[in-house]
Specification:
alpha+beta; 11 helices
Length: 350
């Protein structure tokens, strides 16, 4: 009737939406084809930057366009003076922040931003840290932003103590924040290292962490984040030094011992001795499998002149002597065996 607004049916609305999506898709495809052709022609100009910008503003998750955009920016940075290069990077930062507002969890945007900051003549890391704070306020479990924050912290020299305090603030505001708990597990051994050099956090600090995580349990017993952290704490408790596993090999002839915690064999009262057929071997040289550190939980030694192929059953014993206790682990290598192992249970204590 005259003077009345026509109300579209559901079918009409769906058809209009389909037509709009088709138009957008056709425009995007045309722009993508244009960008692909320019990349093929190795055109790294302002127009290429404009085209990729328009496409990525609509859909920031197209890796091919980000790759081309980095090629363009790299070319422009190579030919521009420092002042103009700085301005170009600053404009790109603004563009990336707009893309993050479209999709705060875009892999492509965060990766491109870290690449850009490494190329920027004079990066402002303080501003980047503030950006992370802002987006973590929007979604404190955005692990893309947490990863980028760790990158910024590493580049800017923010102390581990400050970051640990930051995780405390985030956890106190919301216990259901797995990213904060995880980051905290990485920071504790750095801020409060164990005096034994094992790479763990100090025992008294771990005990305090139990109090923190228990508060999270009482607040929300069904939340998984705190329980995951609690499990990590249990695995980091002080362990009794023991031989956890003994492995013997004929080819090549050697012994590998796995201990329950990292130690430095030959110092701090820790010693390993080997006996074959009841006879203790002299001049046994133990080598840490993790050559990058003096401490390790895997130690091996060569038995080049002590194990014989095809001989009768050979009894091998490893004795661990430490300030805590003495332990003897034995293993029998049969005549038809090229390897053997013995496993003992490890114990935990608090």
């Amino acid at each position: 009737m005259h003077g009345r607004l026509k109300v579209r049916t559901t079918a009409e609305q769906q058809e209009l939406k389909r037509q709009e999506r088709t138009q957008k898709l056709n425009k995007f495809q045309a722009g993508f084809n244009r960008a692909s052709q320019k990349r093929l022609n190795k055109e790294y100009d302002k127009e290429s930057l404009l085209i990729t910008g328009q496409l990525l503003a609509a859909n920031p998750d197209v890796s091919t366009l980000w790759n081309y955009r980095r090629e363009i920016i790299q070319h422009l940075l190579d030919v521009k003076p420092k002042e103009e290069a700085q301005l170009l990077c600053s404009e790109e930062q603004e563009f990336l922040e707009a893309c993050l507002r479209v999709n705060p969890k875009s892999y492509g945007v965060w990766h491109h931003r870290s690449w850009l900051l490494n190329k920027m003549p004079t990066p402002d890391w303080k501003t980047e840290l503030q950006l992370c704070n802002k987006f973590l306020e929007y979604d404190e479990r955005n692990f893309h932003c947490w990863d980028y924050r760790r990158f910024v912290v590493k580049q800017s020299g923010v102390s581990a103590e400050e970051e640990l305090e930051f995780t405390s603030d985030k956890i106190s505001s919301n216990f259901s924040n797995y990213s904060s708990w995880y980051y905290r597990s990485k920071l504790l051994p750095v801020v409060h290292p164990s005096p034994d050099g094992s790479g763990r956090a100090a025992e008294d600090v771990l005990l305090k962490e139990f109090q923190l995580v228990q508060n999270a349990f009482f607040t929300d017993p069904n939340d998984q984040s705190a329980w995951f952290y609690h499990r990590w704490l249990l695995g980091k408790g002080e362990q009794k030094l023991e031989v956890d596993c003994l492995y013997v090999s004929l080819d090549p002839p050697k012994i590998i011992v796995r201990l329950t915690k990292p130690v430095k064999v030959g110092s701090n009262g820790v010693a390993l001795s080997v006996s074959v057929q009841g006879k203790q071997l002299s001049n046994v040289h133990w080598q840490n499998s993790a050559s990058s550190s003096l401490y390790g939980s895997l130690w091996e030694c060569s038995l080049q002149d002590h194990l014989v192929h095809g001989s009768d059953c050979q009894d091998i014993a490893v004795e661990l002597n430490s300030s805590e206790h003495t332990q003897l682990v034995t293993c029998a290598l049969g005549a038809d065996q090229s390897e053997a192992k013995a496993v003992s249970s490890s114990s935990f204590c608090w």
